[in-house]
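Hey L., structure's done. Input below.
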Amino acid sequence: MNALFLLDANVFIQSHHSSYPLDVATTFWNKLKMLARNEIFISIDKVKEEVYRKEDTIKEWCVKNLSEDLFCDTGTSEIMAQYSKVINWAISMNSQYTPKAIEDFSNYRRADAWLIAFALKAKGSLTIVTYEKSAPQARNIIKIPDVCDSFGIKSTDIVGAFRQLGETF
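Output:
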């Protein structure tokens, strides 16, 4: 696996709905497609489920432009073991986070904890790409960058990933 970056669902959804609409920022989407094809960008099945949950133009683009291989399986025993560590970490943070924040983060249908588990399995070789921003004082939501910090996983946003790669669009 050549992958360097692990994409969160919001890379697809938020990119399209904010800065890089599919019908305007075609070079952005072509660059994302090329990096996915070259296995520099990967994601996981739980992200695919989040992106594909709604019948819309971003799902349609993903179906037409991305290989099924982009979305790696999280159902392995190795990843399940890492997922347990991540969920146990969230539960142990009950003095910081509200029960609702822990419950939301621990929801098996949400990709966040699975992304971190997948990155843990990769032993430092993957950077998670998300639009979420660190909020270490937050009580009502657990943010991916804060969990990454706790586990020694790198995280960045999509522009940061392009910069690290020296890519432009």
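The chain has one domain: 5-165. The chain is about 50% helix and 10% strand.

-- N.
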